[in-house]
């Protein structure tokens, strides 16, 4: 599977999108499926955590502002788990604040994308982090 992913771009790659906005989830899912990715979606941190354990995504995009368990808390829990601490986590936010970026780094996120993100931003973030992991 590893070699196939590198040759075909993103084909077969498991990407998780965690966002309480149906629009964001659907947009990202549509974009990524066109690239051949397998997309896992979750509406909040609790749902994400249970799916991560079962489905083991290669990269995770998490919205910061979510009910119950926010993106920072979810990211911190992922990064504290031995099995998933190396999984790239990219924070999504509608705010482009320095404080949010810094806080995202503190909890272990690899990158920060401002919503609405473009197809290019989404794909380049995935490719960047997969190349680093390789």
Could you explain how this protein is built, in words?
With 134 residues, the protein is α/β, with parallel strands linked by helices. The protein has a single domain, classed as Response regulator (Rossmann fold), CATH 3.40.50. Helix content is 47%, strand content 18%. The chain has a five-stranded parallel beta sheet, with helices on both faces. Helix 3 (45-55) runs parallel beside helix 4. The chain is globular and about 30 Å long. The model is unreliable at 1-7 (pLDDT under 50).
Helices and strands, with pairings:
Elements lengths: L1 H6 L6 E5 L3 H13 L3 E5 L2 H11 L3 E5 L7 H9 L9 E5 L4 H9 L4 E4 L4 H15 L1
Parallel strand pairs: 1-2, 1-3, 3-4, 4-5
User: Which structural class should the secondary elements be placed in?
Assistant: alpha/beta
Spatial order of the strands in the main sheet?
A: 2-1-3-4-5
What is the highest CATH level, the class? Alpha Beta
Number of domains: 1
CATH homology superfamily name: Response regulator
Examine the coordinates and then state which fold CATH places here, giving the name of the CATH topology.
Rossmann fold
Largest sheet: 5 strands, parallel
Percent in strands: 15-25%
How would you state the average pLDDT, rounded?
91
Query: Are there runs of 5+ residues with pLDDT below 50, and where?
Result: 1-7
Question: How far apart, in Å, are the first and last alpha carbons?
Answer: 13 Å
Shape: globular
Name of the CATH architecture: 3-Layer(aba) Sandwich
- Cα gyration radius (Å): 14 Å
The number of helical segments is: 6
Q: How helix-rich are the residues, as a percent range?
A: 40-55%
Number of strands: 5
The run of helices and strands is HEHEHEHEHEH
